[in-house]
Amino acid sequence: MRPELEEVQVLEDYLQGNLNEEQRMDVAVRLLWNQDWQQKLAAQKLAYQALRMAGRQQLRRELDAIYTRLFG
Amino acid sequence: MNSTQSLPMDKALLSDREKTLERIYAKTFPMVRHYIREHGGTTDDAKDIFHEAMILYYEKTVHEQLILTSSVSTFLMGICKNLWRQHVDRQSRNTALTENHDELLWEEPEENDEPTALKLMTFVEQLGESCKSILVSFYYFGQRLEHIAVQHGYQSIRSATVQKFKCLERLRKAVSHLSIERFKP
């Protein structure tokens, strides 16, 4: 994977608590002084939030379709 | 006979969501509808409440490994009763306030910031069908990458993984100035 994608993956692992202690410290320290990383982390959290909303919307649509099929 | 019927619920939801949801729906919705109608609601209210409960149930089962000691129907029924009670409480509070004309400026605290929510969903839509489907399947529906790779015609899990991170990077870029605006001091 290219470095930018590796970075997306590292931040994901960081947020999910999937890093070992050394890696976690490494990211935490980097986040302290690197504003670019802080912004990327904030944006990545927002991206997950967006996906949760889009997922809920899709699930709601699927449930509507089931309702129509069974009881509509 | 449905092959997912003998699976634990989280596995069944992952391997055939549509059939599994439909089975739960057919069994539980009539009870919920009965309860809501008995308690002053309509069929539409019952449907809305039931869908919220199903969403909660799905998320808890797939993402938080919820293991029920009761049946799914009992669990859903409990959530629906709670949601309905909250709904009725909120309504009676609103009526009381409107009647008093005391606090017309009182606002219901917004659970979600609507414009931001809408913008966020637009960014997901703009990713295009394939990226959207990969990301939502993985992050929301909890599908495994093996499954996503097959569904989207990737040769290996590795290439599906790379694609997933490419899509996520695009979404992150798209939402990034929203997050900068939001986190500005």
TrEMBL record, chain A:
Protein name: Uncharacterized protein
Source species taxonomy: Bacteria, Pseudomonadati, Bacteroidota, Cytophagia, Cytophagales
From TrEMBL, chain B:
Keywords: Sigma factor, Transcription, Transcription regulation
This protein's record includes keyword Transcription regulation: yes
Organism domain of life: Bacteria
GO molecular function terms attached to this record: sigma factor activity
Transmembrane segments: none
Keyword Transferase found: no
GO BP term (any one): DNA-templated transcription initiation
UniProt cross-references to InterPro entries, sorted A to Z: RNA_pol_sigma-70-like, RNA_pol_sigma_r2
PANTHER family associated with the record: RNA POLYMERASE ECF-TYPE SIGMA FACTO, RNA POLYMERASE SIGMA-70 FACTOR ECF SUBFAMILY
Annotated protein name in UniProt: Sigma-70 family RNA polymerase sigma factor
Provenance organism: Larkinella knui
